[in-house]
């Protein structure tokens, strides 16, 4: 099979339009045929989920490497497909889902990605894969590990020559591998900025509860928009409450409590609050989340600073606990791995 055929470049050039002109693209992607995609997916036999763009299937490459295959609806969304390939192909980071290649045949637009086996952060936080006894245990140090590595991936994306803005950061888009390490996924609405950061992308659709209020007002996606969304994720990590549930908005409730000078500790997840030694670290994370959620874009920290401060919190946590290695998530989570899989693939487009 070709790994960099002219078909990929020609298709992206024809459909990427302004995006392709703004960046130097590296298309070191494997170019698949429709027949190869059918073989990889076993005739599209195992669907992981579907969304507005189309469907996602599980498959295996010829070396038996498991993959997820995102298939766009026939003959539609060609430009969205091209933009997703272009943006995703720029990123090479251990905490970002790896892109293997794509098929550009007219009625078989597909993206072939790394398959991540343990569902996503949303499932663990909100008990989507719980057993009869309720939510699975989720120790604070493992929550910190996931937050730190996710922040590091976003920091890397923001610091690239042509920065990548994800635009849809939320727990459902933070997948977890066999070691429960995070993998940022779903670049369907991600965007590239010019190197000087003077050009911004308009008309970006985000997710209610995570969207930067400035983005909803201006339609302009900025690096600090991802910072805001990550602030909401931090709140979910320490409270185990959903960003939006009924009429309750987690970020608004949290910020209102902070504004009124109320203690926010009553919002923390009971599992990690029961250990009183955790309180200082939870309050430090909450303080960082509050800074990420500031309305004034310039007052929010950069993702690099967010990652640094989370690492500082983790170091102090380990010193306080008297250990230098993290506690693994109980084996109970691994037993539930397959059950999580079929309900957890992020489908937001």
UniProtKB/TrEMBL annotation:
Residues 42-327 form the Protein kinase domain. One of its GO terms (cellular component) is plasma membrane. Keywords: ATP-binding, Kinase, Nucleotide-binding, Serine/threonine-protein kinase, Transferase. ATP binds at residue 70. It comes from the Eukaryota. GO terms for molecular function: ATP binding; protein serine/threonine kinase activity. PROSITE patterns: PROTEIN_KINASE_ATP, PROTEIN_KINASE_DOM, PROTEIN_KINASE_ST. GO terms for biological process: cell surface receptor signaling pathway. Belongs to the protein kinase superfamily. This is Protein kinase domain-containing protein.
